[in-house]
């Protein structure tokens, strides 16, 4: 016979897995809430700012190209 005490009744492996799944689901919900509340609005603001800067840069490039095309023509060509 064994001299070890009988195992104490505690949560089964299945119960521990269920608890872990509940904790994971709760953390995922919190992460989704944070992303929706903080990350997405910030990304939108920065994207709009970047598009406006790009628009200004493209406008300047177009103006520069327009000046080059409408500039003095080479009489020898």
Could you provide a short overview of the structure?
74% of the residues lie in helices and 0% in strands.
Protein model, in words:
The structure is a single chain. The protein is mainly alpha-helical and 77 residues long. The chain has one helix spanning 13-69. Helices cover 74% and strands 0% of the residues. The longest helix is centred in the middle third of the chain and has 57 residues, at 13-69. The chain starts with 12 loop residues before the first helix and ends in an 8-residue tail after the last helix. The mean pLDDT is 89.
Number of helices: 1
Q: Span between N and C termini?
A: 109 Å
CA-based shape:
rod-shaped
Give the strand content: under 5%
Class based on secondary structure composition and strand pairing:
mainly alpha
Taken in chain order, the helices and strands follow as H
Radius of gyration: 33 Å
Mean pLDDT: 89
Percent helix range = over 70%
In terms of quaternary structure, the protein is: single chain
Uncertain parts? none
> How many strands in all?
0
Main sheet makeup: none
Secondary-structure blueprint of this entry?
Blueprint: H1 13-69
Key structural traits:
single chain; 77 residues; mainly alpha; 1 helix; 74% helix
């Amino acid at each position: 016979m064994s001299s070890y005490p009988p195992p104490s009744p505690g949560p089964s492996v299945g119960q521990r897995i269920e608890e872990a799944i509940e904790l994971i689901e709760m953390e995922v919900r919190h992460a989704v809430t944070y992303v929706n509340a903080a990350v997405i609005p910030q990304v939108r603001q920065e994207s709009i700012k970047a598009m406006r800067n790009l628009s200004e840069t493209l406008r300047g490039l177009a103006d520069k190209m327009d000046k080059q095309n409408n500039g003095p023509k080479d009489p020898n060509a």
